[in-house]
Amino acid sequence: MQLYKTRLIPESPFATPLRGDTLFGQLCWGILFQYGEARLKELLEGYESEPFMVVSDPFAPGFLPKPTLPPRMLGLSPLKRREDAKKVWMQPEALVKGAYHEAKSDDEVGYRDRNFVQAHHHLDYRNFRMDGDRFASYNVTNYQLSDKEIYFLVDESRLSRHELEEVLAFVGVYGYGKDSTTGKGRFCVEPLQRAELHQTGEYFMTLSASVLEGVKCQQYWYELSVHFGKHGALRAYQNPFKHPLLMAGCGAVVRMDEVMNLSYIGRGVRGISPAYPDTVHQGYAIVTAIGGIEA
Q1: pLDDT (0 to 100) of residue 83
Q2: CA-CA distances (angstroms) from residue 87 to 101, 102, 128, 189, 282?
Q3: Model-level pTM?
Q4: Residue 283: DSSP 8-state
């Protein structure tokens, strides 16, 4: 499989947080609309054990997240826990060297994400008023995002680089997440570039939320991530809700039994939708080897 990366440039606010597993689902819809349902089914055949594509979470351009590990294991002082907690970005080379003291904060790397609340109102069209509890106002959280860098691990014998670029462009125009019909979630992307991550080691860090159940390893550390998914596009109108999915969050660390060469970890997930049994969820994560862990 070939690793690519691209810069995603938001062109409107987002109503849904940008995540790798959610973007994977949006890209599957893009494949269906661009190339047909038969092509999508072909790509998803055997997805539980062998993915045709794995999508990372978005990161500050040029950086990766700091591993989810106790300060002691990173060689950091527990007395500076609060200060170090804000330093969440690391250059890939620093991760390989284990130089966790070089982590940087959002301000230091120019990362400018922010959330803002927008007021909405239900309108009673019988009298064009908002009287009564049924038509009370409510607030919606929107996300103003800075530029992102996203990694894609692709089996080019099944999905070509050109096809992935076409589907990414389609999703950017169509819109990501909820309220895309009102202009939310619009973005453009730069051409895909070949990328390299260090993939040989004993300790590996995940670059998106993942399902680690069944992974043969010696030990792992993670923060829980509960995904409350909903169907979109053509499946948004009949029971769109999926079962909650408990995952290991981005930045989880896995210790293998021996030095290995890995490009991804995890598994595909089915059985999460009561209405559509063929639904799949990306439980895979691209990984990068990391060093300097004090076990």
Answers
A1: 86
A2: 9, 9, 50, 27, 28
A3: 0.90
A4: -
